[in-house]
Amino acid sequence: MDIILYMWEDYESDEFSGKIITLLRLVPLEFKIHSFEKDTDMNVVSKTIGEKVRKLPQIVVDGEKIGGYYDLVEYLINKEVINYTGAPKWEKNN
After folding, report:
1. Which one of 35, 38, 69, 86 has the minimum C-beta count within 10 Å?
2. Range of the domain at 32
3. What is the rounded CA–CA span in Å between residue 4 and residue 63?
4. How many folded domains does the chain comprise?
5. Measured between alpha carbons, how far is 94 from 39 in angstroms, rounded to an integer?
6. Which residues of 30-61 are buried (b: 16+ CB within 10 A; e: fewer)?
7. Per-residue confidence of the chain (94 residues) as pLDDT tens digits?
């Protein structure tokens, strides 16, 4: 999986950004973080992501915009990467 996290530059202090990073490290899945300065216009953010967004963080997996934290949880459950408790269901090599 090619995972890109789009977040504000102070993502360490953002609750949902922290949850996303913690979940992906727990699984574990590799990911890249693309951060934006706080004063970046959302039109610039949307253009970078490739579709209109209203807020950050946003997650893109294999070129598909997934959404935020809860969307990522649902996506990973549907892909059978995690179970309903958030625990990993597969090895990193798969």
Report:
1. 38
2. 3-78
3. 9
4. 1
5. 39
6. ebeeebbeeeeeeeebeeebeeebeebbbbbb
7. 899 999 999 999 999 999 999 999 999 999 999 999 999 999 999 999 999 999 999 999 999 999 999 999 999 999 999 998 888 886 654 4
